[in-house]
From TrEMBL:
GO terms for molecular function: peptidase activity. It comes from Algibacter pectinivorans. This is ATP-dependent Clp protease adaptor protein ClpS. It comes from the Bacteria. InterPro entries: ClpS_core (IPR003769), Ribosomal_bL12_C/ClpS-like (IPR014719). Keywords: Hydrolase, Protease.
Length: 91
């Protein structure tokens, strides 16, 4: 393997690592399971089963990563969650 190929490979790996962010959803005492599930289906394009599992994890663990990806994709999704009254942040 040449030095040029190795450097290119390392750069691609670095970019892949740097572009992955997460939306973390936090538990609260206000929103119902149904509201959280419906919002995750709408904002994060979860299936009903995924959304239900995330809602259960948030309830029992206090938080859950609900979406991973590029920051430009996560920002509007996180905004939708916040506008729906959920507690979430991008990390």
């Amino acid at each position: 393997m040449s030095i040029k190929e190795k450097a290119s490979e390392e750069l691609l790996l670095e970019e892949a690592v740097l572009t992955q962010n997460e939306i973390v959803l936090f538990n609260d005492d206000v929103n119902t399971f149904d509201h959280v599930i419906e919002t995750l289906i709408y904002a994060c394009e979860h299936t009903a089963e995924q959304a239900e599992q995330c809602a259960i994890l948030v309830h029992y663990k206090g938080k859950c990563t609900v979406k991973t990806g590029a920051l430009k994709d996560l920002k509007p999704r996180c905004s939708m969650l916040l506008e729906a009254g959920l507690s979430a942040e991008i990390v």
